[in-house]
Amino acid sequence: MREYPPTTSLNIFLVLPKAELHRHLEGSLRIETMLEIANEHGLTVPASIVHLSDMVQIGENEPYTFSNFLEKFKTLRLFYRSPEVITRVTREAVEDAARDNVRYMELRFTPVALSRAERFPLHDVMDWVCKSATETAEKFGIDVKLIASVNRHESTELAEQVAWIASNYQDKGIVGLDIAGNEAEFSGKPFAPIFREAKESGLKITVHAGEWGGAENVREAIEVLGADRIGHGVRVMEDENVVALAKERGTVFEVCVTSNHQSGVTPTLKAHPLSKMIEAGLKTTINTDDPSISRISLSSEFQMANEKLGLSMKTLKEQTINALQAAFVSEEDRERLVKEFKRGLE
């Protein structure tokens, strides 16, 4: 049952300590920062925030399709023009999360995307992100871990390079490997050996699946790619056998409600299956995915889940604890985080 009326202040959700497992660095850029970068580096983009936002954010009158959603990243990839830019956008992503009272976050980034505009070496890109995230996290008192991400539509050779560097950067904050991109047209199976080796090296595995592809992709993520967690995964509900598999394996779902609606996975926010996933006994968490593209924060996602999906405050707090229990950290750190958050959630 809803605990608060639709007019509830966002502050009620802002004061809650929150944890996030699924946020993309490349979808977290501030509009103002993009304009400054464009001016500094001579990029041809609209000169106003209003017109630039049309290119990099989802508007109310746009088609809510996965192709339109992915189109935003084509523009965003123009901005990674220097080490200073990559350092800055990482710093601001962590700072924005901290100001939203996110106290634990796993920030995923795609080294190939960040390197492409200026052909930076992948290990340099990963150095810049790791250093900036670590320094900013310490400054703002937020726990931040990093997940390196690869794309299904790109080569396994590139993915292998990213995975190899990531496995050697575990002492710099990288804790996991992710695969994202167009799952409707590209299978994850060719990447299975890479993910198997990454897991053997100590990295945890999260896989985008069951978003633009059906429940069979969730099965593939679990059985073939060895996923510890599933990014999105909402179409798991299309197959009760895959639901049973996920429950048996204890697989955790990183659910992103607004993103799923804007990318055409669900026709409306109210039609989102998060409530059904919870009722089915699946382990779920609430996340932003790309807060800048979707014009949201984690606090506003909690508010929306309360008002549109009817999730109670108790359930929302359980989602936060679920995230901590599924975090890619040591058992010692997990126990510490759960204990700290439970005090803040009382």
Explain what the structure shows:
This protein has helices at residues 11-14, 31-41, 49-56, 66-76, 83-99, 111-116, 122-140, 156-167, 192-200, 215-223, 240-249, 257-262, 274-279, 291-294, 298-307, 313-325, 331-345, and strands spanning 18-24, 102-109, 143-151, 174-180, 204-209, 229-232, 252-255, 283-286. By secondary structure, it is α/β, with parallel strands linked by helices. The protein has one domain (11-345): TIM Barrel, CATH 3.20.20.140. Strands 1-2-3-4-5-6-7-8 form an 8-stranded parallel sheet. Helix 5 packs parallel to helix 7 and helix 16 runs antiparallel to helix 17.
Question: How do the helices and strands line up, and which of them pair or pack?
Answer:
Blueprint: H1 11-14, E1 18-24, H2 31-41, H3 49-56, H4 66-76, H5 83-99, E2 102-109, H6 111-116, H7 122-140, E3 143-151, H8 156-167, E4 174-180, H9 192-200, E5 204-209, H10 215-223, E6 229-232, H11 240-249, E7 252-255, H12 257-262, H13 274-279, E8 283-286, H14 291-294, H15 298-307, H16 313-325, H17 331-345
Parallel strand pairs: 1-2, 2-3, 3-4, 4-5, 5-6, 6-7, 7-8
Helix pairs in contact: 5-7, 10-11, 16-17
The major pleated sheet works out as: 8 strands, parallel
Number of helices: 17
Radius of gyration: 19 Å
Unreliable segments of 5+ consecutive residues: 1-7
Order of helices and strands: HEHHHHEHHEHEHEHEHEHHEHHHH
* Range of helix content: 40-55%
Gross CATH architecture: Alpha-Beta Barrel
Global outline: globular
How many β-strand runs? 8
As a percent range, the share of strand residues is 5-15%
Going by CATH, what is the homologous superfamily?
Answer: Metal-dependent hydrolases
Mean pLDDT: 94
End-to-end distance: 19 Å
Give the CATH level 1 class.
Answer: Alpha Beta
Structural class: alpha/beta
CATH topology label:
TIM Barrel
Provide the number of structural domains.
1
Kindly report the spatial arrangement of strands forming the biggest sheet.
1-2-3-4-5-6-7-8
